[in-house]
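Below is how a single chain appears once it has passed through the pipeline. First comes the sequence as given, then the structure the pipeline wrote out for it. We keep one example in the README because the format questions we get most often are answered faster by looking than by reading.
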Amino acid sequence: MPNAVIAATGLFTPEQSISNEELVAAYDAWAEQWNADNARAIAEGELEAKTPSSAAFIEKASGIKSRFVLDKAGVLDPRRMAPNLPERSNDELSILAEMAVKAAREAIAAWGKPVSEIGAVLCAASNMQRAYPAMAIEVQQALGIDGFAFDMNVACSSATFGIKTAADFIASGSVKAVLMVNPEVCSAHLNFKDRDSHFIFGDVATAVIVESSDTAGPGGWDVLGTRLKTVFSNNIRNNFGFLNNAAPEGIGKSDKLFVQQGRKVFKDVVPMVSDMIVDHAGDLGLDPQGLKRLWLHQANINMNEMIGRKVLGRDPEPGENIIILDDYANTSSAGSIIAFHLHHDGFERGDVGLICSFGAGYSAGTVFVKKRA
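Resulting structure:
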């Protein structure tokens, strides 16, 4: 039975970025106007005044200093507070597909093989821009790939679930190589009028090529084992969907965007993920404290640091627990892949690391990898 190899990765980063200071200025301008418009109701106790935000609050709460976005102007316009992404015709490449294709082309170039060797395309992401046709099939066509393609949505864990699915296809002999892409326009489902979450997300796309060990050349990463876990929870939720059109009174409600109960998420997810990593490592005969590097989902610096300490049994050394939140913010499914793509240097043959994601659902996925010769 052939083993799976992570042969190459790719990354698309938007040109525009927003600093905490810029984001706070826009939010505070909106909040000041909202307070003025609702002054009577606030004075009579019917509404609570909006509290200003601050760059210091954002960094302390999340570790985020800036985020990349597709449309900076729309997000920073106090009259809009949302990206302005014009709708494209059905004959044009859609936004998510365009992002995915750019990341995929970088991965394919690094791989150095023709796309004719890819037998499947998976688009694994939090929020697809339409129900059908599948984004993955559009990406497949744009890249000239034969075979089959489909979409997957397991929120922030989508990439590790995608790698697991690709590895299973490899093991079964269904295909020799799989392209897995993670396009995330997180700014489009973030409530920029919510002080507690307006800073969390950024936009990006990543790509991973998973190949059979029978055909893989030198380099890359052996997939030692993959594991998935889901536990239902309402503590992270986004209620937007096609049924909104059947209930016009619900359109525009804040729960149609990203909402979470952050403290409950932290309390639930940190032990769940930490235990899952340690248990999976043990089943593979690995010492979790001997992992050379952790590429965790980039959710929140406090969560990532706590998980790192629990897994390694100590405070991680610099470069052991990768954090890219400061520049990219939370990019949902793409976060752990960005960390892996940008910071996999310094590994020698046989060194082991962990790609791990976790998010709404709850969902979590672990992928242990070993550096090949």
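The chain has a mean pLDDT of 94.

See the next section for the split statistics.
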